[in-house]
Amino acid sequence: MLKKVFLLAVLLFSSLSCVSAVDLLSLAPESTSFVINVNFEKMMSSEALKKQVEENMAKQTPEQKKAFEEFITKTGIDPFKSIKGLLVFVSTKIDEKTQKPDAAVLIDGTFEIEKVLAAIKADPKASADAVIEKFEGFDCIKGKKTGEGIGVFLDANSAVIGNEGSVKTVIDIKKGAGKSMKTNPNLEALLKKADTAATIWGAGLIPPQVKEQAKNNPQMQPLAAVNALFFSFNYDKEIAFDFTGEIDKKESLEGVMTSLNGFLAMVKMMAGQSPEAAQILNLIKVEGAETTAKISLRVPQTTLDEIKKKIEEKIKLPPAAK
């Protein structure tokens, strides 16, 4: 059920396309190599997104509205109000069972834990898919199928979803028995450069194995010089996206810039049949300076409205006229 709650929040966010009370960064482990943060509070403060939410909610059928209201009543969770933010982290630590890097989703919100657990027990479908038990002393919702992972309420304002290994690491930090990513000097230095006040932002250190794979690929070889990256996304009166890669040395900049411009040219060529997509892509800028390469995009609301209108008109056209 907790997994379904999280998925619902993500789906609602996707359909739309302030600092959180809980410091989620302090709960991510020291071994973290990459993070993505979504600030739902800031997202819902945007007039543009508020308008889209209202439009999408207005399109719901009576049955959908009833199901949504029942979900809120039974669980006490309103995805538009209860979820303040979430942070996805990927660790350098490898899970022994899957042989994949440990990863988890940390959630900052307001949870009526007993109400959520009671809703699961009362729902035949939910109780058939998951079991409620204790994990390291915390309330846990565990999928019955192998590999579904677990969800744990750390307290009334935070929760974590992931495999058992990654969740235990977070719980150790919560108990004061583990170190957070804030003790990782390389990652902490990178976070100081990232726009952590953005609606969506991310940052990460490129693992050695990924750099090695890039070296062995002729088309990707120049990108092996990228040691770290950070990005941000904001949407209010315009879409603002910035992506920055930090390069190992100044001499590598030209090769990285050539690769990025080549990739952008290829994407533009692929989008050539869609004037609307091309209009957006033509606003992308690629810039280099010293040991950084930056991709940026600014799309004014007026341009977005113009493109939306064109798409809506195209949809109304008969197939032969498109």
Can I get a quick summary?
This protein has 322 residues and is α+β, with helices and mostly antiparallel strands.
Keywords:
single chain; 322 residues; 2 domains; disordered N terminus; 12 strands; alpha+beta; 40% helix; globular; twelve-stranded antiparallel beta sheet
Unreliable spans are 1-20
Count of individual helical segments: 12
Measured between the Cα atoms of the first and last residue, the distance is 43 Å
Q: Which strand order do you get reading across the main beta sheet?
A: 4-5-6-7-3-2-1-8-9-10-12-11
- The residue fraction in helices comes out at 25-40%
Q: How is the secondary structure organized here?
A:
Elements: H1 2-15, E1 32-39, H2 40-44, H3 47-58, H4 62-75, E2 83-94, E3 101-109, H5 113-122, H6 124-129, E4 130-135, E5 138-143, E6 150-155, E7 158-162, H7 164-174, H8 185-191, E8 200-205, H9 208-215, E9 226-235, E10 238-247, H10 253-270, H11 275-281, E11 285-289, E12 292-300, H12 301-316
Antiparallel strand pairs: 1-2, 1-8, 2-3, 3-7, 4-5, 5-6, 6-7, 8-9, 9-10, 10-12, 11-12
Describe the structure in your own words:
- With 322 residues, the protein is α+β, with helices and mostly antiparallel strands.
- The chain has 2 domains: 2-182, no CATH class; 206-321, no CATH class.
- Helix content is 40%, strand content 29%.
- The chain contains 12 helices and 12 strands.
- Strands 4-5-6-7-3-2-1-8-9-10-12-11 form a 12-stranded antiparallel sheet, sandwiched between helices.
- It is globular and about 60 Å long.
- It starts with a helix and ends in a 6-residue tail after the last helix.
- Residues 1-20 have low confidence and may be disordered.
